[in-house]
Amino acid sequence: MPPVTKNEEETVLGVQKIVKRIGATRADLISVLQAVTNEFGFISQTAMEELSKLMNLPTKEIHSVATFYRMLSTQPRGRHVVQYCESAPCHVVGGREVIATLKKVLALEPGQTSSDKKWTLLATSCLGVCGMGPVILIDTDMYGNVTPEQVKELLSRYE
Amino acid sequence: MAYYRSTVLVSMDPVCIEKGALEVKEQLIKELALLNLSEEVQVLDSPRLGDPETEGPDILVYPEGSHYIQLTTATIVPIVLEHFVKGRELQQYKAQMRDVTDEELSEPKEKEIRVILENIGKIDPRNIEDYIAVDGYQALAKVLGEMSPDEVIQTILDSKLRGRGGAGFPTGLKWKFARQAPDTPKYMICNADEGDPGAFMNRKVLEGDPHSVLEGMAIGAFAVGASQGYVYCRAEYPIAVSTLNTAIGQAREYGLLGKDILGSGFDFDIEVRMGAGAFVCGEETALMASIEGGRGEPRARPPFPASKGLWGKPTNINNVETYANVPKIIHRGLEWYTSMGTEKSKGTKTFALAGDVAHTGLIEIPFGLTLREIIYDIGGGIKGGKAFKAVQTGGPMGGCLPESDLDLPVDYETLGAAGSIMGSGGMIVMDEGTCMVDIARFFMEFTQDESCGKCVPCRVGTRRLLEILEKICAGNGEDGDIEELEELSEQIKKNSLCGLGQGAPNPVVSTLKHFMDEYKAHIYEKRCPAKVCRALIKYEIMDGPCTGCTVCARNCPVGAISGERKQTHVIDQDICIKCGICYQVCQFNAINVN
């Protein structure tokens, strides 16, 4: 076994805290994985192994749940996560042009993270604010009625 | 009883008290006494009035309804002088009128009837007393005090209430099955995994009137004999989750949830469970798998949840809007409820109007109104004066209906017969600038992506459908594609495990049925009549009208346009992403779309 790095130690402690707060039963698994994703940006191998011990579940079970849900990630993400809605109400009011511009400006395809680890581009499921489409979400900030012209300016607000 | 000309309500919210509400009240009484107004002005304690954090301490003066906020013992003095002696409102201490324009829910239009949405925006969803003041929890009290579970089920059966999640199964019958199941404990689930793109009526109800759902669940739990309830809410709705949690906490405090509800001996509690972004979890068996902490994959039915559901126990699952109907039916009676709607679809239904319609947002109508009445009379017609092309009802598993279907009445049977579905109530209006092949491709992209992958017809079938549609949109369609789309759709519909797969071909089948000409134009003429499919269109700058003003070049997000000032500009077709911005910004109509 390679020596445990400081980062891994932090992950283990963080995961322990989360499980203590939320619970260790099977029904708590999704909430726990969501909390781990929120805190560390993704669910690492170390986190999964620790969860396996704490929740008494095989890692393959945890992995299978972690990869099923869109909001859980097993891959590291960039500092800012840009999500666009690709659902029909946004699509028919100009979402397609906004998405094309986002991809071009960030030079990313959905699911990719930029090499400087600044941006991750993802498609999101419908956010239910269809009255103000097209909608994009940068981290937790929601922007509605977005036009392709606004894309560069919106992105420039993030360091 | 003494007669007062004015009544002052002082907010006794704990936060207000902490911020000095008691001192303000004392000062108020003192000032009124000094001015000999104690006989004329009544001072009463009140629960929370405004938002204690930002507005407390605050008072509300009746009959004027003036709300004075952020009060101190100093500011109360001029208010007493001005308001009660001189009869003038002191504007600087008054709360600003709340901004009541809600983009998602405007004032009801003439043909609407608001039942489910009636309290939204009118009551404070985070204050249970607001809900109680509009007769909230009266129905629960009536059920627990005067009715037997069988009477409750009979009432819901007689109301002909049908599931608002989409399939329209009679709610009373569902409850009856769950009641008859011998096993215990029984569970009550509220499906708040509103994943259909374009549908947000459930979110609005959860955020604006959460107790109506909790009350409906409690009544249902009494009827079927359930002791524990879960609201499964999608994680995309954080505000709904927090509002629900607040509402559940308050209902427990008031003895309306928990042990021995209203002293009746009936125990029932509710917990909120969150999804993590998976559309298929709206399917009931997948939803239960997700509550149990696993992958949200559907399973074959039977056994139905009523006999074997959550953790293998009898479970009743209804949608948010279905539950919200229940207290209204019990409280206002069958005669009132069944007077709305059609023979087989009673009551009202909420819809979310979206797309190219003038007024987007939520509406609520009695069943039986026509699509034309909804789109034109309530929705205000097509945005920008364009022509109507199609309306897609029922979310991604629904179908697209053309102009000739606009006079169909909206109810479960009629929409089904026309090749679409009621679904949860999304309604996407499309104008003449929409390509129906592209729309079919688009919906297939969605279902293909959201297919959980468990059964082959759905997992592989939707992918094959998508590939054919992509091929057609890319200009590579060939003879035989249409027949293959039809054949595949039939197979997927017949053989898929759950509603997602069974409904997935609907957008393809309905567009093939109503817009065959467009498919043929794409395949045989390599032409997209709506000028949407990028491979089949090209933006070009025309030599004559172009003045070389540079507007297009400056607005092009990808720098595909070049040219000297006052010279005709050129679009580099290799760089162009066909976003159409140049077309929109050109003031000389120099951009041509082919």
What does this protein structure show overall?
The complex is a heterodimer of chains A (about 160) and B (about 600). In chain A, strands 2-1-3-4 form a four-stranded mixed beta sheet, with helices on one face. Helices cover about 45% and strands about 10% of the residues of chain A. With about 160 residues, chain A is of the alpha+beta class. The model of chain A has no long low-confidence stretch (mean pLDDT about 90). In chain A, helix 1 packs antiparallel against helix 2 and helix 1 packs parallel to helix 3. Chain A folds into two domains: about 60 residues; about 80 residues, Glutaredoxin (3-Layer(aba) Sandwich). Chain A is elongated. Chain B contains 24 helices and 17 strands. In chain B, about 50% of the residues are buried. The interface between A and B is large, with 44 and 54 residues.
Please specify the SSE layout and strand pairing.
The complex is a heterodimer of chains A (159) and B (594).
Chain A: H1 6-22, H2 29-40, H3 45-55, H4 59-66, E1 80-85, H5 88-106, E2 119-124, E3 136-138, E4 141-143, H6 151-156
Parallel strand pairs in A: 1-2
Antiparallel strand pairs in A: 1-3, 3-4
Helix pairs in contact in A: 1-2, 1-3
Chain B: E1 6-11, H1 14-18, H2 21-34, E2 41-46, H3 52-55, E3 59-62, E4 66-68, H4 76-86, H5 128-133, H6 138-146, H7 149-159, H8 171-180, E5 187-192, H9 201-208, H10 210-224, E6 228-233, H11 238-253, E7 269-274, H12 284-291, E8 315-319, H13 320-332, H14 334-338, E9 348-355, E10 361-366, H15 371-378, E11 388-393, E12 400-402, H16 412-417, E13 426-431, H17 436-450, H18 456-473, H19 481-495, H20 499-503, H21 506-514, H22 516-524, E14 539-541, H23 551-555, E15 561-562, E16 570-571, H24 581-585, E17 591-593
Parallel strand pairs in B: 1-2, 5-6, 5-8, 6-7, 9-13
Antiparallel strand pairs in B: 1-3, 3-4, 9-10, 11-12, 11-13, 14-17, 15-16
Helix pairs in contact in B: 6-10, 6-13, 7-8, 7-10, 9-10, 9-11, 10-13, 17-18, 18-19, 19-21
